[in-house]
Give the backbone structure.
Amino acid sequence: MLQRISQLVVVGVIAGLLVAALALPAVGGLGITARNVASGFLDMPSNLETPPPPQRSTIYDSEGGVIAEIFDQNRELVDIDDISPLMVDAILAIEDASFYEHGGLDVSGTLRAAMRTMGGNTEGASSITQQYVKNVQIEAATSQEELDHAREESIARKIRELRYAVALEQRMSKDDILEGYLNIAYFSDGAYGVESAAQHFFQVPASDLELHQAATIAGLVRYPYLYNPRFFPEQTIERRNVVLDRMVVTEAITEAEAEEAKTEDMDLDLDTPPNGCVPSDQPFFCDYVVQEIEQDESFGPNETERARWLRTAGLEIHTTLDPQTQEAGQAAVDKWVPRENESRKVAAEVVIQPGTGQILGMVQSRNYGPDESKLGETSINFATDADRGGSSGFQAGSTFKAITLAAALDEGLPFSTSFNSPTSVSVSGQRSCNGGTLATWSPSNSGETKSNTTHNMVSGTKASSNTYFAQLQKQTGICDVMEMAETLGLQRADGSKFTENENSLANSSFTLGSDEVSPLRVSNAYATFASGGMYCEPQAITQIEDRQSGTTIDIEPECSRAIDEDVADGVAYLLSQTFNGGTASSLGIGRPTAGKTGTTDGFAAAWFAGFTPQMASAVFVGDPRGPQQHPLRNVTIGDRHFGAVFGATIPGPIWQETMRGAHEGVEVEQLPSAPGRFGSTSGPRAPADSEDEDASPASDNGGVPNVVGQPEGDAVSALEAAGYSVNVSQTRVRSGESEGTVAAVNPDPGTRLPEGATVNVFLSSGGGTASGADQGDDWFPAGPAHLPPGRDEG
């Protein structure tokens, strides 16, 4: 104890001499100034916190693969035992040769500096401990004022650093101080800490640095900008050689070893780890994870603090992203909507695990970047809501009919709930959630039903009949349907609730998906159906390890029952029927599935949402410049031309290919059977004045006749004779069939459809190499080329 006190007194006296020498060179004032400063020195605060310096944070997928690294400073901490002894010798030789002998202050160096200053030559003298103190204070600064205080060129700062240095020497070992210094020091060209410097300049760990490499890095610390090897190689080599000579003086190496090292070229092998989401292979999911941290108040008091924590705390962020699902989804959206397509259309998709809410995949057909004017580049994540880096959303079309089904079943309506569903109907008397009466609404179908068609929930869902769902919404209550949507986690992508938004409350067509939402929300609502009614908050992060504080945050799924299991299972059953002669007939993936197409008014956007017991996914395709102004009509996307894009045209195949790839190796599970409480699942009874349903040719096992290649008149006659309505598209498509003959039909030949269902006929413009039916997934016509205003294909 007496030794420590005497050391403090001696250092205090030296501090006084230093101040006197540097501040009052005139010998006359030396004694008084030294005495005063030495006395005050012992009373200065000395407790300096030494937290770990800023380091890189890493985002991992569910299998431990690196998604991205995010940092303010490129730094990786290492133990002193993992640093080459040559590196230690080099830094000691050039910066503080007596480090292991002094108590925080290089006495001879300080006195030498003081004497030279008295002679008119200013010279600094900082031990490694003092340099470490300065760097700690700089890194701990949280404001510009604190930063300026830590960097100020003043005697006061020197004295503060000296006092802290002496105190550190009393409570930290020399090895710990040296380790801290080598990890915090800036080594030029964006490399912080010796490990990052070794990796950056030579692509080797600090433990493997050779003599000439160690001397090069050690020489950078004093003037990292002047000796930057990238820009000033000659000065860097000169500095390296100075370090080698100093190592000879300190007897760390022999003169012969130094001379041999001087003959080595620097052999720079520059490597900088990618920083942020831009260079990531999963950039939009990466951005979503960043947004989740920066927007969540549980991670810090304000967004600035949370952003700092993310970029400096050396976090290991473990996420839900499944590489197999992500890869399958990205390949699918890139295939159907190429990133740099001249039409500037975009596809976005989210895959969610039912029962946990975990996001397994999040993709879109864009490169991630800040230049929105550059073709194929955006920083907007169209897969999610605006508060998570997304857009204000897109109308979801008939994917919302599933919400109406859930609301109706929740109120006890049976599957047999039937309505005459003609081409158009007038719906009046609907009462909004604000108590007002909505204006009369006159929705229309796309022509898929006869004027006397009667639908129940089963056939109405298969046919995606707008007029059926308009009447079902009225009977259920539009406010109840909106509240069901919110129960399932749906909201407008701008963050507002349907039941509080003026536009939503004034709109009669909620069941047709007239509100703007995100794929994330739609996918998660469908995941609730797949999970038997358990709603889970969308989850991207499972665990955060904070290496700076040594703490771990485990994030569990947030789930609760939203709707009765029977209601969820009933919706799942109804949506599964769309793959059995309905609008999703050609989109199966070889295992039980349920889903719904969606095409908005005027072809502004197209959707497909569906699920298996293990995964739910929603796909959106549209134009971010303005869907209404740039519709999916008469558009060329990549090398494919489309007269009109429906839910089954592009979103459906994207969903199909994603789910096929994502389910490879995944056990097949069955969807629940239809709950008995909702009654019969049979189709509706035909009106008394209609033809005998059993005699309808549409019930034949052959399904839709194959009329490809036939003249228009013959094809129409054959289809009508089979019991189907026919819609001939006004837009012709390229095909190997003769011009004017049938190029393709949708649904495909052989598809079983209910009586009166519409078969869409596409005539050939010639110029192709094969018929549409022979081109598989590379050509997929679906639906009529034109719908009257206000109609929705579903």
Notes: The longest strand covers residues 758-767.
